Amino acid sequence: MANDHRPDTRRTLTLRDVSEASGVSEMTVSRVLRNRGDVSRSTRDRVMKAAKDLGYVPNKIAGGLASQRVNLVAVIIPSLSNMVFPEVLTGISQVLDDTGLQPVVGVTNYSPEREERVLYEMLSWRPSGVIVAGLEHSDAARAMLTNAGIPIVEIMDVDGPAIDSVVGISHHRAGQMMAQTILAAGYRRIGFLGTQMPHDHRARKRLEGFTAALAAAGLALEDREYYDGGSALLKGREMTQAILSRRPDLDFLYYSNDMIGAGGLLHCLDAGIDVPGRLGLAGFNGVELLDGLRVRLATMDACRLEVGRAAAEILTGKTADGRSSGVRIELTPRLDPGQTIRAPR
Amino acid sequence: MANDHRPDTRRTLTLRDVSEASGVSEMTVSRVLRNRGDVSRSTRDRVMKAAKDLGYVPNKIAGGLASQRVNLVAVIIPSLSNMVFPEVLTGISQVLDDTGLQPVVGVTNYSPEREERVLYEMLSWRPSGVIVAGLEHSDAARAMLTNAGIPIVEIMDVDGPAIDSVVGISHHRAGQMMAQTILAAGYRRIGFLGTQMPHDHRARKRLEGFTAALAAAGLALEDREYYDGGSALLKGREMTQAILSRRPDLDFLYYSNDMIGAGGLLHCLDAGIDVPGRLGLAGFNGVELLDGLRVRLATMDACRLEVGRAAAEILTGKTADGRSSGVRIELTPRLDPGQTIRAPR
DNA sequence: CCAAGGACCGTTAGCGGTAACATAGCGCAT
DNA sequence: ATGCGCTATGTTACCGCTAACGGTCCTTGG
Lengths: 345, 345
Prior knowledge:
Two copies of one chain form a homodimer. Chain A folds into three domains: 15-67, lambda repressor-like DNA-binding domains (434 Repressor (Amino-terminal Domain)); 72-170 and 304-330, Response regulator (Rossmann fold), CATH 3.40.50.2300; 171-301, Response regulator (Rossmann fold, 3-Layer(aba) Sandwich), CATH 3.40.50.2300. The termini of chain A are far apart. Helix content of chain A is 42%, strand content 15%. In chain A, strands 2-1-3-4-5-11 form a six-stranded parallel beta sheet. The first copy, chain A, has twelve helices and twelve strands. Chain A is α/β, with parallel strands linked by helices and 345 residues long. Chain A binds a DNA duplex (30 and 30 nucleotides) through helix 2 and helix 4.
């Protein structure tokens, strides 16, 4: 009695119920409900009314099995909590909304094992496409994607070989660009503050590009500070205080993301540090939050909305040549110097 | 040739392929893969190996149809972009992760029409439960929920009649509590700053509770300011500036959420306003972001994680009495006075 | 007037699994 | 030896819907 929900008096409705209520065959009802094939206006109306009156809700499980077609798109992302992926999702939804395709989101928490599990679960629903963040996957996950027989779009990153289609920016180049901008402004003693996440490959690639550009100028990072978990804004504050008390001579701090960058900026403002004169700051992502700070943090836009839109357009074949496989789109991130990098000298 | 993905040389695998590869019946393969029923150790191993070697991924569409059971839980929320619902999702996932149930998220953007559409889509997958934010639904949506024949949990709000189960806080009382705290601290000329969202019923209820408590003390809101869209932090800044330039005599600002509250706080700090002496501030939600500000904003925790966990526990029957229907859980929000309300006089 | 071609609707045969029930083989107490 | 109970596996009949095809009218041009 505890778990019994609606004992069985009213089974859940099927096409048959609607067909009996409207006096036509199940097939005709199916045609009406899917708006496919020829049905006369009068029977269409009759069927629609019956369906609505009964409160019939189609069974996509059965429909999907019969038609071998499912209007789902699997979207696999590392996290929902950092503001960046929700915006990608928004882009995806915008495009998918008018196509009958529906995104289903899976979250991996930056864990390859979880990615593999989530992917397996998703593929078992036989979606008509997959959008997955990043190019790095376990061997098993890669095999599943390769053999799924559906279009795959890897997003956010183009630095590496793609399984099928890919949309994103080069984080290596993004790091490089930022470093060059910083160097051009005359900063020389540079520290890095980032997250302790071995599986955040995009952050890693940005840092690699960054240090490569420093190396090309005969420089290296002077110091690093990492954090793990907790409020990013607060951590940014604390880390900044820590690194500056250890190395007060640093003249630039490069943050792996805008949240900790914003925290650092708040600390500098509160501490009365001359930004960008004595100390320059830069983050990454172009999050909306930054607009609310008194001083605008230098950042780089990862084109999140655009990435989501482009990925969805590939899956729906809305590309230039109508292809939905093997497409490669590299977007160019815009560097916003904000007010925390001084003018080039 | 454009859209053709994997021409058809290798069809997608079925149980039959695994059964042939391992020399047992499809049924036995099914038993092995679901870990159900008696299968000898040796055949189990053989089947597992065959499935792995082939790269077989079960078809849950077919399985769901046959078993009349689908391990999905529909989760319907208004938004993903404001940090509050992701935390609810985290709570839900934490509990569901070990149960084989999988959340599927739908976003309504605070639109009743979209809620109805999303709900219809979700129900057509025949999930084993629904978690939906809020108690307000269109008639059609309410009918669908009532007739779905599965456990329904409405979350985040308990101020009103529930369809089935409900988990949340009373926003009316939350607003009331905040008002009483503010009044006890001696503030008297109070302004409100909020979002222009007619369908955010919880914000509305908080404000109703708030004004009711003011009225009980013979007071009313002195002024209001609304915004719509854009960066909440920035809007909070701008609105605060606007309302204060219009009514410099106000001694308290009540914000409908923490993001705009934080923006307001930043403005006040930058403008050198004495907080909480001359002006008190309070928001709502207890978002993590606030930890990173120099001055902690007064707020009220909406128990988001706990709400998510409790909702999931209801669906999985992990309640005190094992019920998964008709449960009502009212949580008590914790008021955190932070540093923006002065001590009661 | 008739064949051809729509418009409209029904029938049949699955889709890929699983519930429920059979069946086969074996050990063991009687 | 017999029969019972258990384990391990196979068989059958769907689940609710749709693709594919077939049939019946009715229109229409020659």
